[in-house]
Amino acid sequence: MGVLIGDERGPRLAAEQKIEARPRNWVTPVALVLLHEESSYGYELMERLEEFSFEQITAGTLYRALRRMEEQGLYKSEWEIPEVGPARRTYSITEAGESYLAVWAEACKQYQNVVDCFYRAYTSR
Q1: What are the structural domains of the chain?
Q2: Which residues on adjacent β-strands are paired with residue 88?
Q3: Among 45, 85, 88, which Cα is nearest to 63's?
Q4: Residue 18 clears pLDDT 70, i.e. is over it
Q5: Per-position DSSP letters for 1-69, written without gaps between them
């Protein structure tokens, strides 16, 4: 009977794990940064979220996040009634949303420093 040195499953298991480097709860700050750029409506927000790799976000997930954001006072909405076509709700960021976004951006800057240090340490070995 031979001796097993190490566990051959280790690297395979690590490679099979779904490791998400992106922190969770990004829908709120990304939606706010999009609204910071310009007011928008739900469908357009969904399309623009794809720029941030949110290809798999569902309308339900986005609208739940928007409702939560509205309860927190991060944006305001109003109905836009065009001359042609259906009415649609337009979203725009509030002062509270701008403040939230500024705090989030600073936290991202600090997190980026950690990521940069990690990557430099990893690649220098």
Answers
A1: 21-123 (1.10.10.10)
A2: 80
A3: 45
A4: no
A5: -PPPPS-THHHHHHHHS----S-S--HHHHHHHHHHH--EEHHHHHHHHGGGT-TT--HHHHHHHHHHH
More confident position, 14 or 103: 103
Contacts of 92 (CB under 8 A, 6+ apart): 35, 39, 75, 76, 77
Predicted local distance difference test score (pLDDT) of residue 54: 77
What pLDDT was estimated at residue 58? 86
C-alpha span between 36 and 75 (Å, rounded)? 10
Phi-psi label, residue 18: left if phi above 0, alpha if psi -120 to 50, beta otherwise? beta
Is this structure's pTM higher than 0.85?
A: no
Q: What three-state secondary structure class fits 75?
A: strand
